[in-house]
Design a protein that fits this description.
This protein is an alpha/beta fold and 338 residues long. It is built from 12 helices and 18 strands. The radius of gyration is 20 Å and the shape is globular.
């Protein structure tokens, strides 16, 4: 099969790789219909997450089951499925509490930028899609595999509810889908922080009521002006840098909730600062599996269209161009078609 391999920072190749096979009784092998590049992939692409061996990239996927192991009972070959970036058994006590991305048997997924994919713990990880998606629905299902599920968790972690004011820090795919998630979860006011016109427009279409283009202290003052000097009830941080996290923390009012879903790099707080803030902090890798059934149902019913974050569509062999486009921010998110 063909698959995307990162050999060194900035060096993406699409190569012939061995076809995946069932290795454990709980495995499934998928023929992939859609995959994509994630913003978190860029940390390794830019050399900010070191690695010593070639990396088979990708963790977002929609596909059709081709083969299952002997202990898989909820799937049959031919099922169209969506999974997420952690495989989980979906039956342990942690999964039952809604945190499948911390499952006691979790396995981090990789290798989804390819024509085929082996998925461990398939019964717990994969969710069957009813019906045949059209192209817009397929894009939405792919978004649900990570960035929509992550934006949804960001809104949940920030305790978004009717009547609340929400700030979203970050205008990548997760941030934009955090805006959509906040609207769907009932937020009254949604302030999107973005300096890019095309992303500002999509944020408004997803439900943002205000756009703040300023950054740093100017951005903080602008948000405080919009919130009567108090800060927001709910803040979603969708970048992962120290600058973004500190901005999000500063924008959260005392008693407010900060949901952080950007993959943290170099983030540091002093204990007294946290102690005196009265800010609730919750975040981490999103338990996307917990949300997939609801998100898939709403996408297939055409209630929502999260796949609009895909603004560049390329064949799998165009992966190097896909990474460049996202690295240079000329694309929000790139869909790859195996």
């Amino acid at each position: 099969m063909r698959g995307v391999v990162l050999h060194a920072p900035g060096e993406i190749r699409v190569e012939d790789l061995p076809d995946p096979a069932v290795l454990e009784p709980g495995d499934a092998v998928l023929r992939l219909e859609a995959t994509c590049v994630c913003g978190s992939d860029l940390w390794r692409y830019r050399g900010e997450d070191p690695f010593s061996t070639p990396q088979h990239m990708g963790h977002e996927y929609v596909g059709v089951v081709e083969e299952i192991g002997s202990s898989v009972h909820s799937l049959t070959p031919g099922d169209r499925v969506v999974g997420s970036f952690f495989a989980s058994d979906n039956s342990c006590e942690i999964c039952a509490a809604g945190y499948q991305s911390s499952c006691v048997h979790r396995q981090l997924m990789s290798g989804a930028q390819a024509q085929r994919l082996r998925v461990p713990l398939a019964d717990g990880t994969l969710v069957v899609v009813g019906g045949t998606p059209d192209d817009a629905q397929l894009r939405g299902l792919l978004a649900a595999s990570d960035v929509f599920g992550t934006g949804w968790f960001g809104a949940r972690a920030a305790a978004v509810s009717p009547g609340k004011t929400v700030v979203v820090v970050g205008d990548g795919a997760v941030g934009l889908l955090g805006v959509l998630s906040a609207r769907l979860q009932g937020a009254e006011r949604i302030i999107a922080m973005s300096r890019h016109a095309s992303r500002q427009q999509l944020a408004l279409e997803f439900g943002a009521t205000d756009i703040v283009a300023e950054r740093g202290d100017e951005g903080i003052e602008r948000v405080r002006d919009l919130t009567h000097g108090l800060g927001a009830h709910c803040v979603i941080e969708a970048v992962g840098t120290n600058e973004a996290m500190r901005q999000a923390f500063t924008l959260t009012r005392p008693g407010g909730h900060l949901g952080f879903v950007g993959v943290s790099h170099g983030v540091s707080f002093e204990g007294r600062e946290l102690f005196m803030s009265h800010v609730h902090l919750h975040g981490g890798p999103a338990p996307v599996r917990d949300y997939l059934p609801e998100l898939i149902t709403r996408i297939m019913a055409n209630e929502i269209n999260p796949g609009r974050v895909f603004d560049l569509d390329l064949p799998l062999d165009g992966a190097a161009e896909a990474y460049r486009a996202m690295d240079e921010r000329t694309a929000i998110k790139v869909m790859l078609r195996p």
